[in-house]
Amino acid sequence: xxxxxxxxxxxxxxxxxxxxxxxxxxxxxxxxxxxxxxxxxxxxxxxxxxxxxxxxxxxxxxxxxxxxxxxxxxxxxxxxxxxxxxxxxxxxxxxxxxxxxxxxxxxxxxxxxxxxxxxxxxxxxxxxxxxxxxxxxxxxxxxxxxxxxxxxxxxxxxxxxxxxxxxxxxxxxxxxxxxxxxxxxxxxxxxxxxxxxxxxxxxxxxxxxxxxxxxxxxxxxxxxxxxxxxxxxxxxxxxxxxxxxxxxxxxxxxxxxxxxxxxxxxxxxxxxxxxxxxxxxxxxxxxxxxx
Length: 291
Prior knowledge:
- This protein is mainly alpha-helical.
- It has one domain.
- The chain has helices spanning 2-25, 30-52, 59-87, 89-95, 99-110, 117-134, 144-171, 176-197, 207-234, 237-243, 247-259, 265-282.
């Protein structure tokens, strides 16, 4: 079930880059929209937690999740949207998928987690697939803005790797709705403060703004974050990271469907390699976390 949860999370998060492109195309203030996103998600998760989770959660775990959302989640999201602004939605979304390599390194350095041969092969396939999708041979003549966007994208991958590795250790014993509630609350506070200090915080007023807020809260935040936390409780971080590389395939599909982007031969090869990586990971059963 863990792999199914991560796949559903990947499908939801695949829409984030598309929303990012829409935000920049319509010149909306990024931090304000992100404040809407996480505040709305926090409200939903807290109501959900109130009715579904009667378990008492220690203050230490609450504080850890809140701070993760306020700093790690907010930083990772900001870097990703900066990357979207400089290199576009598709490249930014795909640069994020350098994070399996960072996850492997972090897990080996900090947690001494062993990696099987199947996982190493899966990692090679996933990174090779990402290279085919990005197709660096088409980006040899880059402008400074493009290079800056690439650095933002790689930094997103590194930040997300830390988020996955350390988040898994903090959330294993916390119900998914509870951890999601505190994570989104922290991110909402962070983005609201940033938007407020920039003098651009406001509530949605137009129908299009309410529609954007509703969709980005539900499709890009509530549904995928719930499934991500649930999957992280059933899989180790390396398996979560490799399974999550299915997201570029979904991102490309959405880009072709909604923005009429072309699907080049190299992207097809890359998608097949990433799918092969996910299949390899599923051949090794994930151990359940100890309680």
